[in-house]
């Protein structure tokens, strides 16, 4: 990397990097801006094979749109079949199991192709067909990739649920999707422990009346199996043919559902398309990570999140790349596991989240220094803003000041990366994500919908034509779709839910942007997205609690963590029961949502700030936790409670506590 001679903390790609990069001329931004639809159509033809080409590139009926109308393609075909002629024996997936004594598994494109076909045939034999939802509660094992691709092959919709969500969370998502089929594993390994899945989900299978449960016998733990309903993966694929005709998937069809948290109590089933989604996933993988045929791409993102879909699976395979999956914890058996994996496998591209970088940094530099990481060429960050200090450590200790850090901003809804600097163009600036990727238009609006000037904070929005990877709606909830994304500035402007600031620097005639984080009621806990309303719903189900508000509290490693403000029934003796109730709150959240949402702090209070109409004003709770100025408190109908709250959270901000009592 080359340091900017004038601007502090600004880096540009070296000549070497530019020479190698797919994209190194900023004119691409202008070209894409002139005609974004034509740009995406050209890239769709270059990056994918289509069974039938489109009659029309894009159609827009705000807030709905569709890309490549009339086209047909298949995601599994594009990830596998078309690479066979030249790359049959190339490794597609390197799988690193957690137990260090266990052998790595390598799957070539031919292996994957055959196994995907076999599993696709097995799914068909179970009666699963195009348009059927299938829920996954699967760890990072090769069968998860195989099963996802098999769904794509036959046009069934996978709905993958993160394994750190609870069985109840799986149930909610199965019910919403009307899914009666589950794929899971007996157990998997994490942090040296055997974590059971099948046994834990049995109750849910009964409750929803599941038709099929396919079980990968990963840890050989002898899970309970119900005759007729439960099938071992190995047994159902053993006699299947290694070829399955790929189903043609149309532009209006869905290729998968992925549940994510929004501002309402229930997670939303985000619908993604096939060919259009794949176009953005493929192009951004190639350009943003500068993926070349011989590269090894290690994305630490779990398949339960959109990053796992687009960059641990589809994007790299669409490009004929080699992707590396690791099953377990970065600390097992020691906190250098990721660095060891990079060293031993000569990884070239490494994509992870700031929270993980912060956590590993705390373990000490010696763990990184022990390993030769010179194979790395590109580093990527995702999930939350990366603070300059963490950026600096990642850049220096992991990337040896050689590798650009692509700070990739996007969402479950956008399907692929929308804002980031590109390796061969730059610039790379700590905490600045970059310009929009070619073909995407972003802006930052003030409350009235006017674009802000550089340096002024506002709301990050996207403008038409949105990238082809963009969501196609919320499953069975058109109102939620409109309300959540298309109501802030009307139905032609997509509101991301994030705050941001343009900076006074341009690339390709567009300002770079700094993303400052969510400004709606959504948390990013260790890069995992959770709705405050979801956590509140879980806690409100406790009989002892009458009112609850959940907000994000800053955390050194995780970025933010859920903090709970709870009001108990008047007859509860808090002095005696405080600890017990705190435990109950943690338990109910873990049970209803999962360990990922565990509250970090609970404050029992006599009231929470509300508007005249009784709506909780979380903004004040957040400011109190962050020691920030509270601003205008005249909208609070019960300002006295602020004094108690300030005391509870040990507020050290600029506001005088006494002023809240008036
Ligand atoms: O708040 C932004 C944050 O993650 C949110 C999207 O979460 P999710 O749909 O789970 O997808 C995460 C992975 C794409 C965004 O609304 N976010 C994501 N990437 C960044 C980020 N915040 C700042 N900088 C980023 N690079």
UniProtKB/TrEMBL annotation:
Its EC number is 6.2.1.1. This is Acetate--CoA ligase. The keyword Disulfide bond does not apply. Belongs to the ATP-dependent AMP-binding enzyme family. Keywords: ATP-binding, Ligase, Nucleotide-binding. Signal peptide: none annotated. Residues 27-79 form the Acetyl-coenzyme A synthetase N-terminal domain. Residues 81-473 form the AMP-dependent synthetase/ligase domain. One of its GO terms (biological process) is carbon fixation by 3-hydroxypropionate cycle. It comes from the Archaea. It comes from candidate division MSBL1 archaeon SCGC-AAA261F19. The keyword Nucleotide-binding applies. NCBIfam families: Ac_CoA_lig_AcsA (TIGR02188), PRK00174.1 (NF001208). Residues 534-615 form the AMP-binding enzyme C-terminal domain. SUPFAM superfamilies: Acetyl-CoA synthetase-like (SSF56801). It is an enzyme of class 6 (ligase). One of its GO terms (molecular function) is ATP binding.
């Amino acid at each position: 990397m080359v340091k900017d001679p004038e601007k502090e903390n600004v880096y540009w790609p070296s000549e070497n990097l530019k020479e190698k990069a797919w994209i190194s001329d900023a004119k691409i931004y202008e070209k894409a801006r002139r005609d974004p639809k034509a740009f995406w159509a050209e890239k769709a033809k270059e990056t994918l094979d289509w069974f039938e080409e489109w009659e029309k590139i894009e159609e827009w009926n705000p807030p709905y749109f569709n890309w490549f109308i009339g086209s047909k393609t298949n995601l599994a075909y594009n990830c596998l079949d078309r690479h066979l002629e030249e790359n049959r024996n190339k490794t597609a997936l390197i799988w690193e199991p957690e137990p260090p004594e266990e052998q790595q598994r390598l799957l070539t494109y031919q292996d994957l192709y055959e196994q995907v076909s076999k599993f696709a045939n097995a799914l068909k034999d179970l009666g699963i067909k195009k348009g059927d939802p299938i829920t996954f509660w699967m760890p990072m094992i090769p069968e998860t990739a195989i099963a996802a691709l098999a769904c794509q092959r036959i046009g069934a919709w996978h709905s993958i649920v993160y394994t750190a969500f609870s069985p109840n969370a799986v149930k909610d998502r199965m019910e919403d999707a009307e899914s009666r089929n589950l794929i899971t594993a007996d157990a998997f390994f994490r942090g040296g422990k055997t974590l059971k899945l099948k046994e834990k989900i049995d109750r849910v299978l009964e409750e929803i009346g599941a038709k099929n449960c396919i079980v990968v016998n990963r840890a050989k733990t002898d899970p309970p199996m119900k005759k007729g309903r439960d099938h071992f993966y190995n047994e159902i694929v053993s006699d299947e043919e290694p070829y399955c005709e790929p189903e043609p998937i149309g532009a209006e069809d869905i290729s998968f559902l992925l549940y994510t948290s929004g501002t309402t109590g229930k997670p939303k089933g985000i619908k993604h398309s096939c060919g259009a989604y794949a176009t953005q996933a493929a192009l951004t993988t190639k350009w943003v990570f500068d993926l070349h045929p011989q590269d090894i791409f290690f994305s630490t993102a779990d398949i339960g999140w959109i990053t796992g879909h687009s960059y641990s699976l589809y994007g790299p395979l669409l490009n004929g790349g080699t992707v590396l999956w690791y099953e377990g914890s970065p600390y097992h058996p020691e906190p250098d596991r990721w660095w060891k994996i990079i060293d031993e496998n000569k990884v070239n591209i490494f994509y992870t989240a700031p929270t993980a970088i912060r956590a590993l940094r705390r373990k000490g530099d010696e763990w990184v220094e022990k390993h030769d990481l010179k194979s790395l060429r590109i580093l990527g960050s995702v999930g939350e803003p990366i603070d300059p200090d963490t950026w600096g450590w990642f850049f220096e200790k992991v990337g040896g000041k050689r590798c650009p850090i692509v700070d990739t901003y996007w969402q479950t809804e956008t399907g692929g990366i929308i804002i980031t600097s590109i390796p061969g163009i730059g610039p790379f600036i700590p905490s600045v994500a970059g310009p929009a990727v070619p073909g995407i238009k972003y802006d930052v609006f003030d409350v009235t919908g006017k674009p802000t000037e550089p340096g002024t904070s506002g709301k990050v929005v996207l403008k038409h034509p949105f990238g082809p990877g963009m969501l196609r709606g919320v499953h069975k909830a058109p109102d939620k779709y409109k309300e959540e994304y298309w109501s802030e500035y009307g139905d032609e402007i997509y509101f991301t839910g994030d705050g941001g600031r343009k900076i006074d620097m341009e690339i390709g005639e567009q300002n770079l942007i700094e993303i400052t984080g969510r400004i709606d009621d959504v948390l990013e806990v260790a890069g995992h997205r959770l709705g405050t309303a979801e956590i509140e719903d879980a806690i409100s189900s406790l009989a002892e609690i009458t009112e609850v508000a959940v907000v994000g509290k800053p955390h050194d490693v995780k970025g933010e963590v859920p903090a709970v403000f709870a009001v108990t029934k008047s007859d509860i003796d808090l002095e005696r029961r405080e600890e017990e109730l705190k435990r109950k709150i943690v338990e109910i959240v873990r049970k209803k949502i999962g360990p990922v949402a565990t509250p970090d702090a609970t404050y029992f209070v006599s009231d929470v700030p509300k508007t005249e109409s009784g709506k909780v004003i979380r903004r004040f709770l957040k400011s109190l936790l962050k020691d920030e100025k509270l601003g205008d408190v005249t909208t609070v109908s019960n300002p006295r409670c602020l004094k108690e709250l300030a005391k509870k959270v040990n507020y050290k901000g600029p506001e005088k506590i006494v002023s809240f009592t008036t």
